[in-house]
Amino acid sequence: MQVRLLGPVDVAAAGVATEVPGLRRKAVLAVLGLHAGQIVSSDRLIDVVWGDRAPATALNTLQRHISYLRDALGCKTSIVARPPGYLLNLPGEATDAEAAQRLIRLGTTSSDPARALDHLRGALALWRGRPLADVTELRWLGEQADRLDHLEYEATRALIDVRLTLGEHARLIPELEQLISARPFDEDLHRQLMLALYRAGRQAESLARYQQLKRDLADELGIDPGLALRELEAAILRQDSSLQAHAPAVTVTAGSAVAAGPAQLPLAIPAFAARHGEIARLDAMVTGQNPASVLIATVSGTAGVGKTTLAVHWAHRVRHSFPDGQLYVDLRGFDRDGALVDPAVALRGFLDAFGVAVQRIPADLDAQAALYRSVLSGKRVLVVLDNARDVAQVRPLLPGSPGCTVLVTSRNQLTALVTAEGAVPITLGLLTDDEARDLLARRLGEDRVTAEAGAVQEVITQCARLPLALAIAAASCVTRPEVPVAGVAAQLRDSAGTLEALNSADTDTDIRSVFSWSYHALSADSARLFRLLGLHPGPDVSESAAASLAGLSVAGVRPLLAELIQANLLLQPNLRRYRFHDLLWTYAADCAQQDEPEQQVQAMRRLLDHYLHTGLSAAMLINPHRDPIAVPELSPGTTVGRLTGKEEATDWFTAERAVLFAVIKRAAADGFDRHVWQLAWAQQDHLDRGGHWEEHAANLGAAIEAAGRQGDQAAQAHAHQSRSTAFARMGRYEQAHTHLNDALKLYADLDDRGGQATVQYQLGWLANRQRDHEQAIRHARQALRLYRATGKPMMAARALNSLGWAYALHGDYRRARPRCEQALARMRELGDLTFQAGTSDSLGYIHHHLGDYELAAAHYRRALDLFRDLNDRYYEADTLSHLGDTHRAAGDLRAARIAWQQAYEILDGLAHADALVVRAKLDGA
């Protein structure tokens, strides 16, 4: 059942729409739908629905409308009376508008263009005409209709960008022309049309479109086109290679469908200062590459000299030469807080990008590096390792496959990489005067640079020909066109020396004076946001996290972020994520210390509350059976991310993983101990299921210390217990046992029998992993007794299955069977789908070994249905493999081959080592 708002207001169930008669009834339903899951007061409903014309009987009439709507929705609890009003209480997504917003959010944040296309098209398909079409005569609902119209328009523009990425430029041209006829001054639509025309080989028409818009804007509004359009025109005139459409790289795995290869390069900087010599050297190395070797190049130079810009620009330029993918990682070698990216973390990111199944990834760094080299074997992949600290950080990330190329940037020269691995060194110096002038001309226009040649040269001198400083100066000239370049030069000259030079061992440039001048030119609100962002531990920040730091709404923080980007004081590597250059990050933190000393603690608490409360919401969506924990009250001004399902929760944790790791370290250093252990608690399931066990163990180590400082024994015990799982996953069983014993002692001191039960359950699981099945049986019995005594029926059912499984692994199938059957019956009563699947698989295994192949197959099929519903591909394949074994034992070789073939295709698609085991079954059948 769903309320539909994106068209006439009605109710839909199973695809069948039911009309709601009467303007006022529809209006009441629309207001509740627009506040789905929130209480709307009766006064507010009456005000929106009747306004100044509300009759004396409005409250009684409202109650009758609510009663009617409940009947229309088919459930008395669909609208709940809660003082001081009512709440729409439908399962799932209560309205089509809510569904559309979720799909748009997924579409605009997905890194996969094909998935983004599906999400955005799905969202737009929900519009059936003018939103709230039959209630817009009511003022507030008319305003909401306008908002939903704008949402549709934003989704349309986002879809066009995705389709441009996928090469649909020719088909888009007539669609864009039609959209522009309705919005003649929409510069973003004109940008998209110009790009589509250029990519379709109609360069002259593209430039003519720009000139026509320029004239129309001047005649009608008295303004010039914005920066984005001016830069696009310049790029078209020079036929910049970055404007070409690039279809996503693909890689084909035997037995699987075509899958998109990784394309991880950040956005290229449009105003790149042409490092012609360095670009030519890199180009020559690729064209003259020895087909039997891996090419490695290092780019070194001082901070702010443009190493990353060069690397990313060149990588985009040559990415067609690497059809199997482009990998990128910022190793944060010179991070302000010393938070180097561990090579193991970078390797996991690369393996994830190639779709390697978690179960296949070993815990040992050397073994991970070997697997990485195996995955890249035979492929042509470009690997960009940005901001490396030293050679030790780089070596595990080097491919072994001929045809691959590695580009490393660092402030250090990485001499050992040159001597041992044969890397080609490129040292990046300051720009020449001509290159600096070219950078400014690309941003300001050749006419302006020529007209104020003397002032331009003074800006170049004041910025010491350092690209970062020049980019910031250029941004100020562009965003303040009323100020001549001479005025900017004078401001730079006046600010020079007013602050100490940036404390950096590898630069003697007074770049801080450039930062200071640009910072002081910001609006007051943007300057405040800039310095508060300096408190963020990195490596990047979302819009909602930035809003929380500033105590603003997301809508309120967006124009401030845009101002910082325009001023080149902030980078935007991906949609709605932002980051600093590390020199600017240090400067922003210094500004916060100097200009915001009393606000830092409150801002940091808002930031931590944002991550904690959003993370806890995501954790419960991923595993709703967890016992929730008590959390501190939300600080005023904090924005909490609204996640609507397991997929969004997983995506949020994935996007914020590196951030949360840094946030936990910062929280521990700043004394926010409760946030430390609760953030570690929130990430538990995501990191465990994703196989990020080293990171998980590190977080939980910090959690144990933080809970100890707080004197919170229960939190300490839980962290010990969870850390044991991480160590067990990595095969470090002695450490796993130590943590479980510590947890057991703490729970005993607290007389917490539920906690003791969980430790016994874990000890049984650990014993089974070590093949000590008799010990596993003893621990499972104790866990079952304790869970039953503490009134935890779901965990008792899981422990009962654990006991049955331990008996089965011990070979005692007759004892195993009734315990697993009882566990399954109880889980069905309690609705525990995840463990129903596992227990059904256990019973399939048990009945197979008891010789009842028909019943074994039935249990396996039930497990398959559940694993498919849960979208657990690995265990679906594992169960199919077992089902094939049962068919073979029953003499049905044809059915066995069908099951094994299905298992093989899934495992092969996951790049899982078990695919070889199943392949051997097929070959031997």
TrEMBL record:
Record-linked Pfam families: BTAD (PF03704), NB-ARC (PF00931), TPR_10 (PF13374), TPR_12 (PF13424), Trans_reg_C (PF00486)
Annotated ranges, domain OmpR/PhoB-type: 1-90
UniProt GO BP: phosphorelay signal transduction system; regulation of DNA-templated transcription
Repeat (TPR) residue spans along the chain: 837-870
DNA-binding region: 1-90
GO function term, MF aspect, one: ADP binding
UniProt cross-references to InterPro entries, sorted A to Z: AfsR-DnrI-RedD_regulator (IPR051677), BTAD (IPR005158), NB-ARC (IPR002182), OmpR/PhoB-type_DNA-bd (IPR001867), P-loop_NTPase (IPR027417), Sig_transdc_resp-reg_C-effctor (IPR016032), TPR-like_helical_dom_sf (IPR011990), TPR_rpt (IPR019734)
Highest taxon of the lineage: Bacteria
Keywords: DNA-binding, TPR repeat, Transcription, Transcription regulation
Similarity comment: family membership: Belongs to the AfsR/DnrI/RedD regulatory family.
Descriptive protein name: SARP family transcriptional regulator
